[in-house]
Model the fold of this input.
Amino acid sequence: MRLLSRLFSILLLQLLARSIIAAPVELRFVVWDGDESLRVLRRVIGEFEKAHPNIKVRMENVDYKVYFQKLLAQYAANTAPDVAMLDPQNFQRYARRGALADLEPFIASGDGVNLADYYKPIVDVHRYQGKLYVLPRDIAPIGLIYYNKRLFKEAGLTLPDGRWTWDYEPRPSQGTACFTNCLQKLTVKGENGRVKQWAFAPSWVGAFTDTVVFSSGARYVDRPEDFTQLNFTDPRTIKAFDWVASLANQKHWMPSQSEMTSVAQTTAVQLFISQKIAMYQCGIWDVPNIRAALKPGSPEFFDWDITLAPGHIDPATGKVNNSAPTGGSGYGIMQSTAHPKESWELVKWMAGEPGMRAMAEAGIAQPAIRKVALSEAWIPGPNTPIEQQYPASRKFTDIAVPSVVFPPTAEYWMEVSGLAFSKTEPIYTGGTTAKAALTEGNKIANARVTSILRQENLSPFNWKAGIGMGLAIIAAVFGWVFWPELKVKRTKAEKAESRAGFMFISPWILGMVIFTLGPMVLSLLMSTTSWDLIQTAQWRGAGNFAEAFGEDPRFWGSLKVTAIYTAVSVPLGIIVALGLALLLNTKVKGMAIYRTCFYLPALASTVASALIWRKIFQPEGGILNIVLFGSDGQRNPLGLASALGSNGQLPNWLGNEKLALPALIMMSVWSAGGGMIILLAGLQGIPETYYEAATLDGAGPWRKFKAVTFPLLSPSLFFTMITGVIASFQSFTQAFVMTQGGPNDSTRFYMLHLYDEAFGLLRMGYASALGWILFAAIFFVTLAQFRLNRLVHYGGDS
Amino acid sequence: MQKRVALDRASKLVILILLIAWSLAFLVPFYTSFAMSLKSPAELSTTAAWAWPKNPSSDNYKEVLSNPNVNFARLFWNTLVISVTGTTGAVLSASLVAYAFASVKFAGRERLFLIVLSTMMLPGIITMIPSYVLFKYLHWVNTFLPLTVPAFLGGGAFNIFLLRQFFMGIPKELDEAAKIDGASHFTIFSRIIMPLSGSALATVGIFAFIYNWRDFMGPLIYLNDVDKQTLELGLATYNSLRSEQWQLLMAGSVLVTIPLIILFFSGLRYFVKGMAMTGFK
Done:
């Protein structure tokens, strides 16, 4: 017996020992990288695991657009990863709430990371109140100009060497050193006066304007980390905006409004590759795309390079100021990790030399460690293979760094700057002057900053009272449903019938109780609080609702956009769907094929169809404009071109604030396949005998439609209307992927605003209030529609 | 009589022309994706999006199918499992619930139905985090369960409402006759209503399947591991910040859409004149 127990204890000990030694620590590591970067990261992680046999890394990849939303959900539920990729615009949200670990103590312990090796600006921008929360992995200055050497030579210009200035007026004597001179010389016009080749396009216009503004010495905020005031009305800023707009509108040196809107982001690089522009401004990240398209030796190839974006001459020093916007990213450790030491090892590896060297060799990201950025891993040398030689002057990525300007890191920057910038969009289309737009934008944005930063004396949310309140609400709803039933006397058979009904709906009741009721009631309670998902909620009473109706500059506007969209797209969608369904309900050979074709747009993936729709709406060469105005853009049916376009240009559907919402409505009608199928199924349910009877009565097609089709289809039509309105009020994805709410908030749906409040500003309490206001609006509209229910013909009431 | 035949012919022709014209118009987006998926990056940048490629190549498809970052076969399997399970749950559960709301008189029916509808009216964004926390306590995060189990419990307000409308359109004479014969509600449901609702059930099935197949937010939030993710998440990899590979995105999206086309095409078989077959007068 003793032997047995001894044996047993030895076994147990061994098991224990083995589990201590053998079980490696598993780290969850989350990034937002693309395909090429992921390949590199996977390799680097493999090397890391080999060097650290006790650590296993599980990498997760999340699309940037929804990355922070997911991270937040995980943090709130205490399932956050150990190490996360972060960037200057987003880390503060987590850092100021204690969700990120301070990296300084790790660095101070002296194990190999020397911050002096890193570019100073990218390290400094990742500090909040003096502490460092992100170890940078890359920096991405946007003050770079890609240029086509062949087109420069053709224009008789020497190649740019980075020592050039913007110059608001051309100075021909200066040659290439005057950027405006280059703009003039590189623009080629055809015989009809239309531009055949533009001198320049920015990747997105905001980056270009920012570059001109920053290099003039002006800034939008005083303290990037925690500003309280915005300054969009600096005379230098106004001048810069006016100049940028004039390049497109008056001089036609730059593609006009068409490529000036954020929605056409991808076209600058494509215009460059197809040699329709001589230069364009972008960060270094476009290089893999250009390399893939312009392989040396291929017919598409031409010689190209990059250089530093121009600057302004500083009147005080006489030197050129090359300040320009920039991006960058790095890795941080979540405070909730159970393995801070191992996490640090991973961060050190990925944002240290091993990780950076690999990323640099793949040409993806400019290393944040300067000596790596100067090494042959990043800057082509004699041993670099030919296809990686381009662009030869990569040294400019290093030269650009000392004058980079990061976007303000304060978490409310995105929302308040968005408010101001949406007002500036008409400047680029010539609709307003910079002074008027910036003054108005400045006013709105500053009012919002004040309202966001206003300190309220709030007490913690009383959870006991809250739960009591929640239960009371549930009881009240329960009472509302069943109170009238108490007075009803039921026979035994009726009682049995009622029991049968509850048996049938029991799955729904279960689902409601388990999954739906709790989150719904919780969100209702949270609508009375100020809650950021990370810290404890604070009681705000009716404050959120007062803010929505009284102070929020986007509340009424976004509600109006949503209401117009619903009022137009739902009836239009139903009419189109009904027409198509009637067409598909005829007896024609091969009907299954037609039905499939009609339904195809509803089957396509969201990401892919968003891109296709952008191509359809594109002003130059977009399918819609070709159909309307011919491939040369000369046809002008019904005077549409002058009504929709401006300045003799073709209509820019997504870039014009009058056309963007109609464009989205058009898109929604096109994808109305869902309604069509429901109505088709409804038509199939109409007994043939009814039509036969009507024919015998001598009814024509219209009488048949009125007397048979319409009444018998009314249940399906009623359904399409009710659900169409409910869905339309909550429209989100279309605008989220197509227009991001622009131009000038003309497509800022209510849900887009709600989303920004919830995940951009972490104001989940306020967002909940917005959500319940929307709920109330939809509820009453639906109730009103239910009055039509008595017109609906159901099977029972012949 | 002859005049009528001629008129019929003319209207048939008009219908045919309309059908073909609309089919072509609706094919534009899909055709454009397909044309783009056959192009090299260089051709993609230098030609119009809908221009047919000069040298169509299947390279993009080969790359999408063999990319180790986006394990297509694995993601396909995951998406299929989630979609089939979710659709089964939605059709079974929604038809039961809808039948009760359409044909069984139980206490509080009308007001309960408003509550069913109201679950559609609250934006999912504000209940997302509480739901996530709930599933975390159930230990369901990073499994398929949050994406499939709720479908069995109710099947979604949209589907319940849709089926209710169809069931209510079925002439009452049918189930009243059955009731007089002493049939229970379950018998009426399974023997009379379900067989008559082929097109409605096919509609719900197709909608539920497409919804699950295309869902982005659900899998995004609940699935962490790369090998547990779905096709729609995989596709997003080709459209990430500062790295857009349109040709691969389009190849992937064509591959992801084809199963849906096949499903829809075969689902059309159930779009038959349900009522006509019963001999109902």
User: Anything to note?
Assistant: The longest strand of chain B covers residues 239-240. Chain B touches chain A through 133 residues (CB under 8 Å).
